[in-house]
Amino acid sequence: MQALAPASVLLAATEGGKDPNPLLPHGADLFWGSVCFAILLLLFWRYILPQASAAMAARTAGIEGKLEQAERDRVEAHELLAQYRQQLAEARTEAATIRTQAQSDRAAMIEEARAEAIAAAEAVTARAQVALEADRIQARSELSREIGGLSIELASRVVGESLTDDERARRSVDRFLADLEAMAAAGPSGSGTAAPAGGQD
Question: Is the pTM of this model over 0.70?
Answer without folding.
Answer: no
